[in-house]
Write a structure and sequence with these properties.
heterotrimer; A mainly beta (about 180); B mainly beta (about 170); C mainly beta (about 180); B: about 170 residues; mainly beta; eight-stranded antiparallel beta sheet; 1 helix; about 5% helix; elongated; C: about 180 residues; nine-stranded antiparallel beta sheet; four-stranded antiparallel beta sheet
């Protein structure tokens, strides 16, 4: 069982102690667009610093859209974490296989998990609006401090003028637990 | 990247600020039954007062039950004027989709405007939805309030079940 | 609206109060397995002690995987109270239907809710990759301290199979009254 920080009776209550108790929330207030590529790019907003040797519960809620009505040009995600760190990333969203997706309100579900550094693909089309995804993991940071960074791209590069967008309103919550 | 409140050395630790830092849980203690209505109205058991010029994450875990598979449900939110943000809708697929029962059905995974309707298929057994709001309030005070109705007005009852709850954190 | 604890102006601030504000996160650091099991087993890591006369929300993310076509049986219980005191159970996971489950990346869903028991049987990938089960519920304890815990096995019982509850599964416990 983890709480961070550890608080003892008689301990001096400091600003640092109270700050350490707080989860960090990063809220995107503008869209970010990635154009014509299946190579994941760093989200310039959804990134959080993490300390060596620590553990964090990281939750990322994404609103995403595609410019293309071609299903397999959907949305690809990955997390970048410091070298030597690990985490198993649960994910909930539209499926990664065509045939059971009609629209964002009529689709099979993807409810699975894989390590943070492996790509996940969500099918979507541009003609039925922004989709919602949820990803979470407990990330164990190794010997290197750094950042947990949300990354995204098209699942398949769609050619000039095609893109995917991580929409405003998406957010990331990072709670240190050890 | 935000936290609330922001602690700095020398800042007075007040009961009010510590309360602001806490996770707030709003839990419905009893069932709420509606029938013959397809216009979402406020469910005041699931509401929370928001400060002006602030940021919040509101997570709603809501369970419904129904006597019939006809009415389905429609969900919306009321927030103070000028509030912006994102809304995440996770639940059963829209009415008319492939859906067997609460353990076997297609889903909705969509964004929606905060004050607009989202329709979910509802079986005649207890079934849940999850909606998340990331809110930025403006200069008008007020409450965030969960709203719901049947999708098809039907004489048989639809129930928002007790133990449905909101989890609210002020983050800015 | 509820928060715990209640802070009153002018009152002495105690370490126990600050600890009570903190959500507790329990993370599985190791995978665990059941093989050919005929009864649920208590999870070796997914459990949390609770105080008496208190109310908590519990959010869980349990990861399962195996190598044959079966389901997981996933249940939440209290050690002292009857199962009914695990209230308002809501799950979002792959379906319980074998015929409508392809993989955990492409499945109909289980969106079960229950006011009387916290139990579901989602289908699990047979390719040894993880299925995720996202469940939420509340616990109201009685006059004695309590332990809320995950109880699980493969479903159906009594078959030749090995099911893994994977490392990285977690539960977050927040006291609100």
């Amino acid at each position: 069982m983890s709480t961070y920080p550890a608080i003892y009776s008689g301990q001096h209550v400091t600003a640092q102690l109270l700050s350490d108790m707080q989860p960090l929330t990063i809220m995107a207030t503008t869209d970010q667009t990635v154009t014509n590529t299946a190579t994941v790019q760093n989200d310039t907003t959804l990134t959080a610093p993490v300390s060596a040797g620590a553990s964090y519960l990281v939750e990322i809620y994404i609103l995403a859209s595609s410019s293309s009505n071609t299903l397999n040009q959907g949305f690809k995600t990955r997390w970048s974490i410091p070298t030597g760190s690990s985490g198993e990333r649960a994910r909930f969203g539209s499926p990664n296989i065509a045939g059971n997706y009609t629209s964002r309100v009529n689709t099979n579900l993807q409810a699975a998990a894989r390590d943070t550094g492996t790509d996940t693909t969500y099918l979507m089309t541009g003609d039925n609006g922004a989709h919602a995804f949820f990803e979470s993991a407990v990330v164990l940071i190794g010997p290197n401090s750094g950042n947990v960074v949300f990354q995204f791209a098209q699942a398949t590069a769609g050619g000039a003028g095609t893109s995917v967008a991580r929409k405003a309103g998406s957010f990331m919550r990072v709670q240190r637990i050890a | 990247m935000t936290v609330y409140p922001t602690w700095r050395a020398g800042k007075k630790v007040s009961a009010e600020l510590l309360t602001e830092q806490q996770t707030h849980i709003v839990i419905a203690s009893s069932n709420l039954i509606r029938s013959n209505t397809a216009t979402p109205t406020s469910d005041m058991a699931l509401s929370f007062a928001l400060a002006v010029d602030a940021r919040y994450i509101v997570e709603a875990f809501i369970a419904f039950d129904a006597v019939s598979t006809t009415p389905d449900i429609t969900v919306s939110w009321s927030v103070p004027s000028g509030t912006t943000g994102g809304r995440f809708c996770f639940g059963a697929a829209t009415p008319g989709s492939t859906f067997t029962d609460e353990t076997n059905g297609r889903v909705t995974v969509r964004s929606q405007s905060i004050g607009s309707n989202t329709n979910y298929t509802q079986h005649d057994n207890p079934q849940s939805i999850t909606e998340i709001l990331s809110l930025i309030t403006s200069s008008t005070a007020g409450n965030v309030v969960f709203q719901w109705s049947q999708s098809t007005a039907t004489a048989s009852n639809t129930t928002r079940l007790a133990d449905s709850y909101l989890r609210i954190e002020r983050v800015g | 609206m509820a928060t715990y604890p209640t802070f009153n102006p002018g009152a002495i601030l105690r370490g126990a109060q600050l600890r009570s504000m903190q959500s507790r996160v329990i993370v599985c650091t190791s995978a665990d397995t059941v093989t050919d099991l005929d009864a649920e087993k208590i999870d070796t890591e997914l459990f949390c002690p609770l105080g008496a006369n208190a109310s908590y929300t519990v959010e869980s993310m349990v990861l399962f995987r195996n190598t044959v076509d079966i389901a997981a049986a996933s249940r939440w219980l209290g050690s002292v109270l009857l199962a009914g005191n695990v209230n308002g159970y809501m799950v979002f996971s792959p379906t319980e239907s074998e015929s409508d489950f392809s993989t955990a990346s492409n499945t109909t869903a289980n969106m079960r809710a229950s006011s009387s028991f916290a139990f579901s049987q989602p289908r699990v990938n047979s390719d040894n990759t993880n299925t995720a089960v996202w469940a939420k519920f509340n616990v109201v304890t009685g006059d004695v301290p309590e332990v809320v815990y995950h109880s699980w096995c493969h479903s159906p019982l009594g078959i030749t199979a090995t099911l893994t509850r994977d490392a990285g599964s977690y539960m977050r416990v927040t006291r609100f009254a």
